[in-house]
């Protein structure tokens, strides 16, 4: 547990996006109740299934996640569904078949993803929801942005911009 505490302290100093990605990896490892040093020895496999890779941020998410998982000694099974529910179902099942112990899931369809979560639960696989709330399925963890905080940061930046350009708001 000391390793996880140290990792959390290191992640706290990262930017918001990096902190989010780091926390997903940290939480996935914590779900398995294994110290990070033993992850490689035990063959820890983490599935990371995104709904799309179209936006640039998902390229960053993937790279950061893979780097953190490798640093922890875990193997990542990565895939992207191209916004297709059927493809995501097949990919999710494949990750289960390949021995993923934890799957980080960004669902294409938040309602239908509940069936994926229940399928994983039946096999003893933990599921971490990522970026979009999964309904109708008991997630083990949920990681998403704080939309309220994002809006607050955006409004503060806008006020600052107006003050610089116009002198008042």
Largest sheet: 5 strands, parallel
**Rough shape?**
elongated
Number of separate structural domains: 1
Radius of gyration, in angstroms, nearest whole number:
18 Å
Give the spatial strand order of the biggest sheet.
Answer: 2-1-3-4-5
User: What do we call the CATH topology?
Assistant: Rossmann fold
Structural class comes to alpha/beta
Measured distance between first and last alpha carbons:
49 Å
Give the class-level CATH name: Alpha Beta
Overall average pLDDT: 81
The tally of helices reads 7
Low-confidence stretches: 1-14
Strand count: 5
- Quote the beta fraction: 5-15%
Amount of helix: 40-55%
Architecture per CATH nomenclature, i.e. the level-2 architecture: 3-Layer(aba) Sandwich
The CATH homologous superfamily is termed: Response regulator
How does this structure look, described?
The protein is α/β, with parallel strands linked by helices. It has one domain (2-144): Rossmann fold. It has helices spanning 2-11, 16-31, 39-42, 56-71, 85-97, 113-122, 147-166, and strands at residues 45-50, 75-80, 102-105, 126-130, 141-143. It has a 5-stranded parallel β-sheet with strand order 2-1-3-4-5, sandwiched between helices. Helix 2 (16-31) crosses helix 4. The protein is elongated and about 60 Å long. The termini are far apart. Mean pLDDT is 81; it is low at 1-14.
């Amino acid at each position: 547990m000391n390793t996880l505490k140290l990792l959390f302290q290191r992640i706290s100093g990262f930017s918001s996006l990096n902190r989010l990605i780091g926390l997903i990896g940290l939480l996935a490892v914590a779900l398995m109740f294994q110290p990070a040093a033993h992850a490689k020895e035990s063959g820890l496999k983490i599935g990371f299934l995104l709904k799309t890779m179209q936006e640039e941020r998902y390229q960053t998410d993937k790279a950061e996640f893979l780097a953190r998982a490798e640093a922890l000694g875990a193997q990542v099974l990565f895939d992207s569904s191209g916004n297709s529910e059927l493809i995501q179902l097949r990919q999710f099942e494949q990750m289960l078949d390949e021995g993923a112990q934890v799957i980080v899931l960004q669902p294409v369809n938040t309602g239908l993803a509940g069936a994926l979560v229940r399928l994983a639960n039946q096999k003893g696989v933990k599921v971490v929801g990522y970026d979009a709330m999964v309904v109708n399925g008991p997630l083990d963890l949920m990681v998403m942005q704080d939309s309220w905080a994002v809006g607050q940061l955006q409004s503060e930046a806008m006020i600052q911009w107006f003050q610089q350009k116009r002198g008042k708001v």
